[in-house]
Amino acid sequence: MSLERSDVEKIAHLARLAVSEDELDSVASDLSNILDLVEQMSAVDTTGVEPMAHPLHMAQRLREDIVTEGDQRELFQSIAPETEEGLYLVPRVIE
To answer: Coil, helix or strand for 84?
Structure first.
């Protein structure tokens, strides 16, 4: 599939892209090459090929969902400027 300059102008207008007059021919050529590649790929017989979510067939490593940090509320609130009933007090920033 080959795109003309006028096609590229319409596409650029719809995509709100600034393509100068000097660039129209090269952009048309690049887009035509991309469309040709897509057409070639569409012609490949993919019968029996399962779609893949990732090109590498790997198992995802997962870690156990266990608590590794202990409760340190007392320590952190001891160094906070102001606390009250287990909450951090911060200055009002919006009136």
So the answer is: strand
86 close to 80: Cβ distance less than 8 angstroms: no
Beta-carbon count within 10 A of 28 CB: 20
Q: Which of 51, 4, 52, 48 is nearest to 24 (CA)?
A: 4
Residue 69's Cα: distance from chain center in Å?
32
Q: What is the DSSP letter of 79?
A: S
Coil, strand, or helix at residue 17? Answer: coil
> Of 5, 41, 34, 39, which is closest to residue 22 (Cα–Cα)?
5
- 6-23 per-position pLDDT tens digit: 999 999 999 999 999 999
CA distance 69 to 59: 27
Which residue matches tokens 């979510």?
53
pLDDT of 57 reads 75
Six token digits for residue 35:
């469309």
